[in-house]
Amino acid sequence: xxxxxxxxxxxxxxxxxxxxxxxxxxxxxxxxxxxxxxxxxxxxxxxxxxxxxxxxxxxxxxxxxxxxxxxxxxxxxxxxxxxxxxxxxxxxxxxxxxxxxxxxxxxxxxxxxxxxxxxxxxxxxxxxxxxxxxxxxxxxxxxxxxxxxxxxxxxxxxxxxxxxxxxxxxxxxxxxxxxxxxxxxxxxxxxxxxxxxxxxxxxxxxxxxxxxxxxxxxxxxxxxxxxxxxxxxxxxxxxxxxxxxxxxxxxxxxxxxxxxxxxxxxxxxxxxxxxxxxxx
Length: 280
Hints:
The chain is mainly beta. About 5% of the residues lie in helices and about 40% in strands.
């Protein structure tokens, strides 16, 4: 177990479980399950996540650093292992259980995963100030139409793999599979590499926090410049965050196109077999 990154990703996600269920309160015995399905355990001060067991080695007493009562998001807590030692994080970022203290090194902030935020792997569209949406037509990236169709559908991905927060490094994958990239001031979707040219830092117009559908965002490229729309052109020329650089991120859902007459079952079946769909 280590504490190396600020990303709220899959590796950092833990499920807190109470043996008999119910509200978790300060002083309760709990278990912490990692993304692999294994619970955190402590042996001789070493903290790992190896087995799905809920035994003595995996049992933790969760306590608020100050106060008592129900454990709430943003509470500062300490985790006491079966040895009586609290989990701590030292300067080397390794998680251990060495001391009885509930001090600064042992303090952990409980953060509940945001409901409704954009997640890595979500399908999105990007609405420009012109009323048109960014599209990828082959390698060309423009903003010519307002329709939220296939060409306007992108997949947003992050290193963390879970909820996306303002400041996160993200990748924007076009419907054909290529990643959007910036070369000098040009924006295109040509290659499949996860490189510097394909890396954007997403910035929320309203400041820090999780990126929610409907938020105004900026996409800052590896050059430090922001993606902008002038007319129907998508470019990356300036550092300023203005109207031209503001994009409304919309979450998209794909479904089969079956908007045909109820009496035309043959046509409906044909469309389903072809896999026609549209974005809502």
